[in-house]
Design a protein that fits this description.
It is a single chain. The chain is an all-alpha fold. It has one domain (about 5-240). It has helices at about 5-15, 20-35, 55-85, 85-90, 100-130, 135-160, 165-180, 195-200, 205-215, 220-240. α3 (about 55-85) runs antiparallel to α7 and α3 runs antiparallel to α9 (about 205-215). The longest helix is centred in the first third of the chain and has 31 residues, at about 55-85. The radius of gyration is 18 Å and the shape is globular. InterPro entries: ABC-2_transporter, ABC2_TM, ABC2_TM_bact-type. This is Transport permease protein. Belongs to the ABC-2 integral membrane protein family. It is a multi-pass membrane protein.
Amino acid sequence: MSALGKLIQIEARLFVRDPMTFVVGLLLPTVVLLGLGAVPMLREPAEDMGGQRFIDYFAPSVIVMAVGVIGLTNLPAVLAAYREQGVLRRMRTTPVHPMKLLVAQLVVNLGASLLSAALVVAAGNLVYGVPLPKHAWGFAIAFVLGITAVFALGMLVAALAPTARAASGLSTVLFMLAMFFGGVYLPRFMLPDAIARAGDFVPPGVQSLLDAWTGTAPAVVPLAVMAATAVAAGAVAARIFKWE
């Protein structure tokens, strides 16, 4: 097995062995969706949601949670802790460059986000009949661009934060903003129109996910904003990231 493959394997084991990360990162979004669906009223069509059920309307917001909780909280905290503890500095003296550790972290956390989102979609469909995304290609594009933007922001936090505590503080602020604009704390139809529209452009772009879920091709501008955010945040993070 290559050095990178071994690192990915080790990081995956560490991820799974951390009960808080595993439960909150992988299972919490699905638990939230199933818990809401257990309320009979939320499984009835509602006029203020265009005849949709609340459980169907809210599913993309749970996807926002699935992506955000890992990309904006777990990833930057772990990378900042590795730097603070000298793990990255010590790896620079070995044949295994610390860049491989960063790649391993990205692979594991991206895989966890994909699995968490897949669990939300599968559980909602199997338990409550939440429809699968009707515009499959649009949903795939929106999801990939959205998750890339979120992880680029997570890497930027890891690059900026001098300590794990600072990373946790910065990432918590970003996470709360993403959840607010993504309609997790308060459904988007209950938000002021200006805030709801702003949420279209806040990674991972909940409106694009919702549009594709209901069968409409996502708008180009929000997708372009996700791509630009991913490129800009990723480039800055790569430029300023310090190994020690």
